[in-house]
Specification:
253 residues; nine-stranded mixed β-sheet; single chain; two-stranded antiparallel ribbon
């Protein structure tokens, strides 16, 4: 991010987190505690502030009143709540569309269940490409991973449906859109929400359409130890059990 460049972070936090029931029965996933009294959302906001970004949009849905109450007294950031009333019947493409259509500056899009070290976001901001996806690489991928196929620094495919043997990376759920890239994703999402399938798919399906048309999506690579996604009970248990050597590094880095 160049000095004086306007940048916003959009956090997609509307989902119900049903795979984490019963913990999310009365609490949104983003307000689950990592340890030491720090929630997922608080960790994200702290790290956003550490890299010098002040403008944040949080897309809410499930238990929005709890998230709104959590952030209402935060004065160090300019936080906008974007409520998605369709959270119970749609996937995150709708949430992304709702926030992006109201955004006039360059932005970073991050999943609401991502926990990351601040240098991941800081490194992404150094990319000067129009569209940049943060990925990691590991020896083996799981069926539920948002897998990618890359060629050098370019992403060719992104989908959970990519065969395990074909994948050579994983999207961590953080992307940056600048200049023309911001306009292209906005226009693509606008077209997709007008189609019936748009209600049920991930926003990364829009990235695949963009890449299929020949527009480049570049990568910024981080280590698997630099982030965590809280999707299942085992994810949260792992972080809590390794709070001293893992989660505390992310939360307090």
């Amino acid at each position: 991010m160049k000095k004086g460049e306007k940048m916003r972070v959009i956090i997609l936090a509307a989902g119900k987190g049903e795979r984490l029931y019963p913990m999310t029965k009365n609490t949104p996933k983003s307000l689950l505690e990592l340890g030491g009294g720090t929630t997922v959302l608080e960790s994200q906001l702290e790290n956003i502030e550490k890299v010098g970004i002040k403008d944040v949009t949080i897309v809410t849905g499930y238990k929005t009143e709890q998230i709104e109450a959590k952030v209402k007294d935060i004065s160090s950031l300019d936080i906008t709540i974007c409520y998605n009333p369709f959270f119970a019947t749609s996937n995150n493409l709708i949430s992304a569309w709702m926030a992006i259509r109201e955004t006039s500056e360059n932005f970073v899009l991050v999943n609401g269940d991502d926990v990351f070290k601040p240098h991941v976001l800081e490194g992404l901001l150094q990319s000067n490409h129009d569209i940049t996806m943060v990925i990691d690489r590991k020896e083996n991928y799981d069926p539920d991973d948002m897998k990618v196929v890359t060629d050098g620094e370019l992403v060719l495919k992104v989908s959970k449906e990519i065969p395990l043997e074909e994948a050579n990376g994983e999207s961590i759920g953080m992307m940056q859109f600048k200049r023309k890239g911001r306009l292209i994703i906005s226009e693509t999402l606008e077209r997709m929400v007008r189609q019936e399938e748009g209600k049920k798919i991930f926003y990364l399906a829009a990235l695949q359409r963009i890449m299929d048309k020949g527009y480049p999506v570049h990568t910024y690579e981080c280590s698997p130890d630099d982030w965590a996604e809280i999707d299942f009970h085992s994810d949260l248990s792992f972080i809590r059990e390794h709070i001293n050597k893992y989660a505390s590094e992310i939360v307090n880095a």
